[in-house]
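Sequence only, no structure available. Ideas?
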Amino acid sequence: MVRFINKVGALNSCASRIRVYESFIKRLYSSEADSNTIDVAKIRNFSIVAHVDHGKSTLADRLLELTGVIKPGHENRQVLDQLQVERERGITVKAVTASLNYTFNNEQYLLNLIDTPGHVDFSNEVVRSVKACQGVILLVDANEGVQAQTVAVHSLAKRNNLIIIPTLNKVDLPRADPENVKAQLKSLFNINPDDVMSISAKKGWGVQELLQAVITKIPPPPADFKKHFKANIIDTWHDKYRGIMCLAYIESGTIQVGQTVKWRSDLKQHTLKYLALLRPGEEPIDKAVAGQVVMVGCGPKGGGCVGDQLLSLESAENIKVATAPTVKHMVYAGIYPADQSQHTQLSDAIKKLALNDSAVSVNIDSSPALGQGWRIGFLGLLHLDVFTQRLLQEHKAEAILTAPSVPYKIKVKGSKLIKQYKGDEVLITNPLQLPEASNILEYYEPLVIGTIITPVEYIGAVTTLCVDRRGTPLPSSAVDDKMTMMQFVLPLSEVVIDFHDTLKSLTSGFASFDYQDHGFHPSALVRMDIVLNGVLVDELCTIVHTSRLEYTAKKLTAKLKEMIPRQMVQIAIQAIVSGKVYSRETIKAYRKDVTAKLYGGDITRRKKLLKQQSEGKKKMRSVANIKIPRNTFIDVLKR
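Reply:
I predicted one. Tokens follow.
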């Protein structure tokens, strides 16, 4: 008690004192605080994986009700979707853990549930989540059937050797066709129809049987108490008072509050100050054992990052820097403060949000028009939208977002002469990074393998769309007599902008789309420059495929003509590639009637004034710089 009082007295803020006091009371009176009673054979770690809108969050709500975490009622919806953006959009963005107690056959089980996102842009959350699981519930909509992301998450579970519990949801709806969907699962994944469970997450039908199947079919985690403590970090976030908090899967050994630990990335010693189960609210505990998924924290200076490992001091792990799993970013965009006076605030917001979203990459960038900013990599356009929305909602930081672009690679000749490039192949995330065309041997464009599941009557329309987007067809397969699965190799630049919306429009919303990285391949690419009255504007340069030159050039120059305000001199807007003009638009100069003050007299007076005006405009064109307001750059560059 004396140590506790001294700790409280040393704190600076009243809020921190209250938090520590509450933590102490919970530990003092909690009947479940002693983790020594946990039997690893009674632990089950599992995730819910599915396509978008197949009912993952609704099923998670029913599981929370069944285990007594929440009370049934309309007010308890999307309990694990804790972000404002998740509730507004009705989608899951972050994988969230909930540790549940459940009694089965008079034995107490600890079930660690991880609710994962379904959209392809947040697939990194699913990949990290399954690292802490031994099985998954593969949820499929009994109305929609197998979708593109269903194929992706099934493949992920197989690669990680996880037990799969196939489950049909929404079987209570009039359009449900469970037998047909079971046949699809048999055709695509060779799943026995007798092994497929049927539930209605909304009404709670079959959920208790599903929970019991989790206990009987999914094995307990492989745990070794005799080995030294080692935990893998699968998520991190920033707490205003406690610093960096981590979600950890304990692989071996035991851990308790007050124990000295080290990070594999820096090997500095830290004292474990916070240890809790997420139910989904924090429940402080004193000790945790191998096989559990727990929240850990080492104080404001404790550190931690996704992909790192927390080790005991006695651990004999090789000394090497731990890094997060490699993430291939599909889209890059520039983020700048609305005003440079807000640069510090936006910088802090991006750092804190990037800590919670390990899928983004952040690099400092600058623009003559927009000032200091950042070049940030995302997994897709929805990921980009959600990131900027969270900046505003969670950190009150307003930002200017430039048009998204995809990364390219180039092979540079004479790389020793170009100091900024250390190797022959260079990753280009911004067209401004491109060297002179004479120094480039070859361009490489990122390709993806797109998987489309569509009704058979739309096969022609889908094929036409993919071929128009420079796609190459791969062998297709029939899902059943009504649906087919098609695959195409597509350029990433043709996919990330509006491909999904166009596909949904062509197929009346019935088709689903998912893609996976296919690497960089040689392509006929060029850099398109925008020139205003002969002056190059670096911020408006783009990389385009040679087959899209005229279309892109006309579209960009027409947009610039609308956005750039008229000035006292004529402005010629040109889209140029290797010295050739592919499109030109002209903004006429303001006209001033210099003869308006004349009320009569000789014609020579009128000619003299017009001549002076002509000479003045000629001189102005020769010396004037085209000044584009900052707001115009924002309108042109933003999405």
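The longest strand covers residues 440-455.
Hope that gets you unstuck.
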